[in-house]
Amino acid sequence: MNNTLIQNIEKYALPFKNKEDLQAIVDSVGDSKYVLLGEASHGTSEFYTIRAELSKMLIEQKGFNVIAVEGDWPSCFSINEYIKSYKQTTSMDALKEFNRWPTWMWANDEIKTFIEWLHDYNKKAQSNVGFYGVDVYSLWESMDEILHLLEKNESADLEAAKKAFSCFEAFDRKPEYYGVSAAFYGEDCTDEVVELLLKIRNNRHQYKEGPETSLNLAVNSLVTVNAEAYYRSMVKGGPEDWNIRDHHMVSTIDELTNFYGPETKVIVWEHNTHIGDARATDMEKEGLVNVGQILREKYGEEKVFAVGFGTYKGTVTAAREWGKTVEVMKVPEGQSGSWEDYLHQAEGIDKILIFNNENKELFRDWIGHRAIGVVYNPEYEQYGNYVPSRISERYDAFVFVDETKALSPIEMGQPVI
């Protein structure tokens, strides 16, 4: 047992009893332009609700105006249209666009409550806060959206897009089929989609039909290029597919910043493994980079503020295999000697840690830190769910909720796998 670590936690931890206690994090953000809000799982209610409360405070007090999440651009754009009243629709209608597994990541009660707040806030404050997905998976959905937008704008680029996308028709909208064909048989569509992206980006300001059309086209084109590369590299193994994905997320954040202007402030919602600096984990030894690292390197640590999240025990929404039925699972008590274990042993229940020059050195020893994905098997978590980390180098702050509960998915019918 590391009694010194427990004592240091007790000395520097702030009690977390209600949402007002989150003000300490907001104050510590300072002049940062990028606030990265993590999660230790994709299926924990408290991680979503606490991120929502922090986001509200950052919007109201600090002028943050973009929320970028670990979700697909096309489906998240439906939320953006709803919260900005671009379409006269409902929160439920917007969430119905999340029809690809794992739907529960965004089609859940916690997100529904938050986007309704955003919708009302934009109306009352005459604001323009946006909500966008920055992930790379939506290859076919993004191609569909590009064709729809080009047709709606009666664009001369429509035929070029149809020709480029015809390359993918043989793969029956199955990314794994395309990945194998491209990686091992040289049957890829790289030239076609890159040429199309350049063409659309050069002509982006010609598209006027509908709000944010040029942005929508530009990012869907970026998704198409990077998703093609992602699926091509995925079947080979190694770090390349992960790195393509996280570089794509940063490129999309840059697109949003360019669209909104130089005063843009971005809140990022992603898993701890994306927002916590990879250089402070064993990911670095495997050749992996992530969003937190890339943003810090690109814009400077003073402009990026990363908040990690964790729990000791509870329940979580997840599935035992990719594409299988979602269920509520028990999250066992944190492994002995883990970060979660020491946070639990320290006095106080839920707590907040802010890492600064006074205490940073005290929390930089290597320690296991739990991570749960959309696929989870609690009985095996000791074999692969703990990421060796230097906590105070990985994050600028940490929110610990001792016992958490599973989030509440909204039933959307049979998801696409």
Automatic annotation (TrEMBL):
Official protein name in the record: Erythromycin esterase family protein
CDD domains named in the record: Ere-like
Species of the source: Cytobacillus spartinae
Pfam families xref list: Erythro_esteras (PF05139)
UniProt cross-references to InterPro entries, sorted A to Z: Emycin_Estase (IPR007815), Hydrolase/PRTase-associated (IPR052036), UCP036794_erythomycin (IPR014622)
Signal sequence extent: none
Domain of life from the UniProt record: Bacteria
